[in-house]
Amino acid sequence: MGGRAPTFLRAGAFHAVSFVLSAALAGWSCGSRETSSTTSGAAVGGGGGTEALAGRLEGLAVSRGALSPAFSPNVTSYTIDVPFAAASVDLTPTASPGASVTVNDAPLPANGTATVDLALGKQLVTVEVLGAGGSTSYIIEVRRGLALSGTFKGVPALPGAECGSALATSGTTLVMGCYRHVEPSDANPELLLGGAVFVFEREGSEWAFVQKLMLATGSAEDRFGTSVALEGSLLVVGAPGHSANAGRAFVFEKDDAGVWTQRAAVAPKPGQLLDLFGSSVAISGSQLAIGAMGEDGGASGINGVVDESAPGAGAAYIFTRVGDSFTFQQEAYVKAAEPSAGDLFGSALALRGDQLAVAAIGEDSAAGGVGADGKGNGAVDSGAVFIYRREAAGWTYTTRIKGPSPNASDAFGSALALHSDGLLVGIPGDDATGSGVGQDADDEGALDSGAAALYRRDAKGEWSLEAHFKSHASTPYDGFGAAVALDGHLLAVGAPREDGSGKGLAPPVDEASLSSGAVYSFRQAGSWLLDGYVKAPVDLPGQRFGSAVALGADEVFAGAPYDDTDAVDGEPSTGITLDAGASYALW
After folding, report:
1. Is the pLDDT of residue 549 over 70?
2. How far apart are the C-alpha atoms of 198 and 165, rounded to whole Å?
3. Are 258 and 210 in contact (CB under 8 A)?
4. Which helix (H) or strand (E) holds 243?
5. Alpha-carbon torsion 449, 453, 553, 533, what sign?
6. Which of 69, 72, 152, 162 has the most beta carbons within 10 angstroms of its beta carbon?
7. What's the pLDDT score for residue 14?
8. Which is more confident, 91 or 505?
């Protein structure tokens, strides 16, 4: 689980380009229908013989959501509401004795389970039960991801706070970083503190604000909340502006009463001014990974000699928790394989188990693919991702990953997500045309339209490209890939400079609201498919919805750090708080 630094995107003029998104969502709704006779075919009887009965269901279990109405053998129409994050639902029908079952015309073994892949919106599932005397059809309308489940604002919402620039979720908790939120210290009103993290908890289907976290001491330039990482009851927050931009990271713990308390402040040895330690943070078990993209060391690999020979080369650090204490010992000083000035190694990172991925969005080499040669400067700021593995003897470098066709200013690695054996990489500066899922097009026809790439690690530990993602139209300057999230067979990609003026799920597509932003979801159903196009519930030019994304157990979260409204849960705004920022949850 990991966080990221503010994304590097090349500036440029916005070009209005018209495009059309095709959405095939079933539009009709079926209510419950109770029948006294649902058979087809003739009943067999007479002459005192036993009448053959039509097949019917005696039970129907679902893995997500709940049947509405509750199951009854004589009710043949149902609805199920499932969350956005549910890419599939399992149906387990129990048929009457001797009857056979098909689900969407596919035969199902007795007492078997059918897995139905789900697109966003509404779709119908037909369960047919065939008995000796005829058949009965049961129709289930599955509705996925159709509701806004939460709007999250700073408390108070302050101008310029840019809430929603960083997000993390675990269980029923959401944390939102607001790194430009500035308030006087409670202990010393003359001291301004920079940055805040707001904590929200879900109880049932409702979200509620529970706590604001700020540092007890510091300065207005700390940028506390630039990056956040959450796992269970532990929260890590990056503050790269702390101590004259040397940077710090802070660890908070939630107690049994649900109260979060700062337990540790983490800094590297040695730390230097302008290192920007805390640019990115991640947590996995007892280990923390923290990026310092401004670090100047020229050493390569793990635990090299610290110097100041490569300004802005960047570094990452691994810290290990000592037992149940809140002492975190520095285990590894991590550098790129061939560090160069301005690489910005540590601008984003992700940590999961024994795997660490670190991005260097300023890396300049031109060779593409996994294991690419890092020599030369033929593609300035194309970016690269470096993979490390923890072994018995400690951390070791394994490989470098570049985009399939690196080009200048791709910013490959601006956002990273690790899940199981998958690594999702954001490439917001990618200029290629193309749309949806496919191989990278080696052209420059859509400046800064952006892309994302998914890599998969095999049983031998070797990485390879699995899929390449674009938005539905590759519009210039969308910045698709500025934020990414991955959870099994579902992924989300933010495009904070997308220009559509629609609202909610699958709205009409236009170019009428500059940099309003969007989030795209993709799901794996055999192959990867473009799943959804999602906009904020309130249209606001410049709000940059999708600057941060996170996937929870049920919801997708998206940050809009330049949101100016005080609107909550899709209601009309009654005022403006300039660049206060917000985040939204779609269930």
Report:
1. yes
2. 12
3. yes
4. helix 242-245
5. positive
6. 162
7. 26
8. 91
- pLDDT tens digit sequence for 427-485: 999 999 888 898 566 778 899 999 999 999 999 999 999 999 999 888 999 999 999 99
Beta strand 463-469 pairing with 206-213: unpaired
Helix/strand/coil percentages in the chain, nearest 5: 0, 45, 55
Q: How far apart are CA 225 and CA 279, in angstroms?
A: 10
CA angle, 541 then 544 then 549, to 5°: 150
Q: Are 319 and 330 in contact (CB under 8 A)?
A: yes
Rounded to whole angstroms, what are the CA distances from 357 to 270, 309, 490? 22, 24, 20
Question: Cα–Cα–Cα angle for 279, 285, 289, nearest 5°?
Answer: 20
Tokens found for residue 301 = 């690999």
**CB 417, CB 483: distance < 8 Å:** no
Higher-confidence position of 16 and 126:
126
Ranges of each domain in the chain:
163-553
On the CB side of 473, how many CA atoms lie within 13 Å of its CA?
19
How far apart are the C-alpha atoms of 60 and 37, rounded to whole Å?
Answer: 19
DSSP symbols for 532-582: EEEE-SS--TT--BTSEEEE-SS-EEEEETT--B---TTPPP--B-TT-BE
Residue burial 362-393, b: 16+ Cβ < 10 Å; e: rest: bbbbbbbbbebebeeeebebbbbbbbbebeee
DSSP state of 163: B
Model confidence at 73: pLDDT above 50: yes
Write down the CATH number for the domain with range 163-553: 2.130.10.130
583 in Cβ contact with 164 (< 8 Å): yes
The CA-atom distances, in angstroms, between 81 and each of 71, 104, 132 are: 15, 19, 33
Contact indicator for 449, 475 with CB cutoff of 8 Å: yes
CB atoms within 10 A of CB 233: 15
- Separation of alpha carbons 126 and 197, rounded Å: 46
Tell me the DSSP string of 337-381. SS--TT--EEEEEEEETTEEEEEETT------SBT----S-SSTT
Measured CA to CA, the distance from residue 267 to residue 264 in angstroms comes to 10
Q: Which tokens belong to 425?
A: 């990489």
Q: Which amino acid is at 29?
A: S
